[in-house]
Amino acid sequence: MRISEASLCALAVGLGLGLAPAFAFEVNQGGGATATPVMNLEAPPRAAPPPLAPMLSLDNSRPAPVPPPAGLGSDAPRAAAPRVPSEGIRCGTVTARGPDKPKVLSSLQYAAEQGHPAAQWQLGSMFARGDGVPRDDVKAFDYFSRIAESHADEIPGSPQARIAANAFVALGCYYLEGIANHVRRNPDEARNRFLYAASYFGDAEAQYRLARMMIDGEGGPQTPQQAVKWLGLAAAKGQYQAQAMLGRVLFEGTVVQRQAALGLMWLSLARDSAGPDEGWIVEQWDAAFKQATDDERAIALKYIEDRLQGRRK
Questions:
Q1: What is the mean pLDDT of the chain?
Q2: Alpha carbon distance 125, 122 (integer Å)
Q3: 95-99 average pLDDT score
Q4: What CATH number has the domain spanning 98-228?
């Protein structure tokens, strides 16, 4: 994730002053998943703000991996596929355009039929986006399914594991929306795919999407406190949409005890990464900034400064 000076500048300009005296915090670790930092109003006026880590006073341990959805992760032997670099896998690395289009497609299709997951992911992504080929969600779904069926048990952190995690996320999105005359909308299955990628592979995108479904009660029961935990894991990895949702939850204090400064920090980081078509993030930041006190803004600014310094070391 890109973390620039923009978040610092936005908060500093809004404050119109140096860092205000910050409240000290006490972190109660004995309360399990619902434990939250509590503001100590008796602290000296110039007490240092709390250390930046842990960012979220919930249990940050990754949940135990869940078994793969039925029919996936077979122990049957499979042909080994060449290892590929992880860079660019999520968005694809090859575009079938121009005079070389037939050759590129032919090479990718041959590699995909040989079980090469990177080629299967590339083709699935191209058909899903209509990038160099006519858009065909059915073909995209088929390629992503092949990856999930054959690589559900890849070692987390490996290049092929990243491809597999992306495939699970893509399938979850398709199950969430459905494909006319081919895949019926199935939120339960979507949630299962996101859960597997989130827990086994630790994929930030899956963690964010799973949290949204848990908050909305889609594909299963509403479990807002579990959703906050997933948002925290995804936000720590730089998933800016998760940062925005986590920031709002912490700032409002509707699910966990209110932690306004921490919430404003996450909203500021999300605002810094949001695209021009994601005005909802800017709106959330703006609303929180206007409601925050000078002390809360100052602590959020200090959090961001500490985070930036940590990245520069």
A1: 78
A2: 5
A3: 55
A4: 1.25.40.10
Nearest to 25 by CA among 56, 3, 4: 56
Strands 24-27 and 37-40: antiparallel
Which alpha helices (H) appear in the chain, and where do they start and end?
Answer: 6-15, 101-113, 117-129, 137-151, 159-177, 187-199, 204-216, 224-236, 240-252, 260-273, 279-291, 294-312
DSSP 8-state assignment for residue 25: E
Neighbours of 79 (CB within 10 A): 8
- Who has greater pLDDT, 246 or 1? 246
Find the distance separating the first CA and the last CA of the chain, reported in whole Å. Answer: 17
In the DSSP assignment, the letter for residue 179 is B
Q: Which pLDDT score is estimated for 1?
A: 45
Q: Find the farthest-apart pair of alpha carbons in the chain and give their distance in angstroms, rounded.
A: 72
Q: Kindly state the tokens that stand for 303.
A: 């959090």
Residue 302's Cβ-count burial label (10 Å; 0-12, 13-18, 19+) is buried
Helix, strand or coil for residue 37?
A: strand
Measure the CA–CA gap between 35 and 54, rounded to whole angstroms. 12
| Residue from 244, 287, 296 nearest 267 by CA | 244
Residues 125 and 148: their CA atoms lie apart, in Å, by 14
Q: What residue type is 302 in one-letter code?
A: K
Higher pLDDT pick, 101 / 34: 101
Q: What is the spatial distance between Cα 43 and Cα 281, in angstroms, rounded to a whole number? A: 33
| pLDDT band, very low/low/confident/very high, at 101 (cuts 50, 70, 90) | confident
Which residue, chain included where needed, has tokens 């964010």?
Answer: 208
Angle between helices 204-216 and 224-236 (to 10 degrees): 160
How many residues does this entry show for the chain? 313
Would you list the domain boundaries of the chain? 6-60+259-312, 98-228
Highest mean pLDDT among 4-13, 98-107, 189-198: 189-198
pLDDT tens, position by position, 202-227: 999 999 999 999 999 999 999 999 99
